[in-house]
Design brief:
This protein is α+β, with helices and mostly antiparallel strands. About 55% of the residues lie in helices and about 20% in strands. The chain folds into two domains: about 1-50; about 60-165, Tetrahydropterin Synthase, Chain A (2-Layer Sandwich). It has helices at about 1-50, 100-110, 110-125, 125-130, 135-150, and strands spanning about 60-65, 70, 85-95, 155-165. Helix 3 (about 110-125) crosses helix 5. Residues about 40-50 have low confidence and may be disordered.
Length: about 170
Amino acid sequence: MEKNNKIFLYVILGIIFTALIAVIVALSFILSSFKSMANNNENKNVNAEQNKAIVNSEDIIIFSIDDPITANLMQESANDDKHMLRISVGLALDKTKKDYKKVNEQLSEKLPVLKHIIINVVRNKKYEEVLQPNAQELLGQEILNEINEYFQTDTITDIYFGEFFVQ
């Protein structure tokens, strides 16, 4: 009888040990999944900066929009306070690109269109979005994408904000 009790005890200990290992493996898998998700969220914010073309600073010409641009921010509901964003914008143009002169001329000729693109992007932002620490980078990247898409170019490499005033 004592031999059966020892066997039974060893079987129970084996089952407990196996269950413990299974729990440890499951927890490590879950923790690594959470860590991976957190890293993916951080990478999304960093990708906007990494996607910018690397251009020698001597090859950059700044196209400035002289007047600041003011636009209302999107309201989530009619009861929300009205907010606005006032920005002054400069576009970095890569003068080594073959279409540099054409793009520079188009920007001057179509300044109202350029301002319209910027205003449309800003008007689709909520007050809370433009208060985030990385708001300038994200807004700049979105504006850059829209401008490059409209003008069908990659000559415009970056956007600079001289003024970024939220009210």
